[in-house]
Amino acid sequence: MTTGTASWLPLSPGERSVAIEVLVHGPLSRTDLARRLDLSAGSVTRLTKPLIESGLLVEVADGGVAGETRQGRPSQPLDVVAQSRSFIGFKITADAVYGVVTTLRSDIVARHDRPLTTREPAEVVAVLGEMTDELARAHPSLAGIGIGVGGRVEGRTTVGESPFLGWRNVPLAALVEGRTGLPVVLENDVAALVEAETWFGAGRGLDRYVVLTIGAGFGYGLVLSGRRVPTVEEDGGFGRHWIIDPGGPLTPEGERGSAVSLLTIPSIRYQVQAATGREHTYEEILALAAAGEPMPARVVDEAARALGTLIAQIANAVMPQKVVLAGEGVGLMDVGGAAVEASVRAHRHPLAAPVTLETKVSDFHDWARGAAVLAIQVLVLGSAES
């Protein structure tokens, strides 16, 4: 396999800014680029020329398709050829690997999932390699791989610690690179999702917003000045100590009344089972709560009010333009949305601006897409924070 990215790298800071602006907001004319980036017309011409020569950008006819060029039209829009390169994104969970292939603009063009029969690193790498081989047969222009895992990731190369997988200090990027021959970027899955939303999703064009993820775990991402704020404790279990209600439930995975104890799927299932003596799936609990079954309704209502309190706390401190809810647990909003909104209002100043709340109904392929976006950022543009 060949990556095909060498002719695009390295980009100077100016070239990188132009390429990102066109990738995220294009097609854009040179005049638009000059205005957006506060550059002179001559600087835009100087910066775009090597990007066009390398094939990363092309001139397009007004309203046309990338690749349709006409000479001598400085005002012609510039665009990327989204289909010129493909990227694989993998999301690894405790029991499966979810894979997608995306274009340069992160549009998903293929999905491929495989169950995990073991979490041994060598076996997981073998599964990733087999999936890559299969995807490469249909998508020969693969430029790289992004992998997202729940847990602490070091240097975009190593899983420092992942409670979901039971891993410590696993050099996953190097292992997968050795198996596939493709460059690999590894990242915490919440961080990858935030990057994808910032460039191509709910956060595009926003200066300041927050992503909250609820599901098997709890995740938090903050974007300031249009850039994700990386932290050393990213998905390192801090949600277990983010106390929302000191008198709230105590569960095996979190401190009493923490975000993890109140909001995650395992904790909600644990609370219902402890109270009723019966196991239920998360979807069953939500359905029972919607039907008025007392104990599931109580647990779901408590989770909804806790989520509203948390959103209000974040809004009071950060004053975001938007709060994005994502993850496999966002079905909570379908049943408890009114309680969430009431709790937000109760914990905000009466004159405070309303919190713009966006719920993204997502599955693990969206997490995999986030990992692919990291690969686009790092391998093609060299732009994301290390």
TrEMBL record:
It comes from the Bacteria. Pfam families: HTH_24, ROK. Belongs to the ROK (NagC/XylR) family. This is MarR family transcriptional regulator. The lineage of its organism: Bacteria, Bacillati, Actinomycetota, Actinomycetes, Kitasatosporales.
